[in-house]
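The pair is set out directly below:
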Amino acid sequence: QVQLVESGGGLVQAGGSLRLSCAAAGRTGSTYAMGWFRQPPGKEREFVAATSWNGGTTRYADSVKGRFTISRDNAKYTVYLQMNSLKPEDTAVYYCAASLSRITAPGRPNEYLYWGQGTQVTVSS
């Protein structure tokens, strides 16, 4: 029902920055909490950040606090993840997701209904 498409990934040196974008298409009239998850090579998917439908509440994994910022522009049906001070351990496929949960900013994968295809982020040291 809702298609999410991530973009902005790529190769960056440690200490650099990237901004990921997630554009939504389909039934975008509803309000969704939005989240970012990542899956490093050979590891399970993990929570990164989330924002409530109105952007008033945000949540971050401890590993990215102070470095990453999630934001959204509902007029453009887009959510962003600004990533600064990148580290090699940030290397992963990053996924955006939309949630219909009543939780304002869900932090669990099973709280999200729609998922993007993922975008690769590689941080070299």
Q: What stands out?
A: The first strand starts at residue 2 and ends at 7. The CA atoms of residues 15 and 81 lie 16 Å apart.
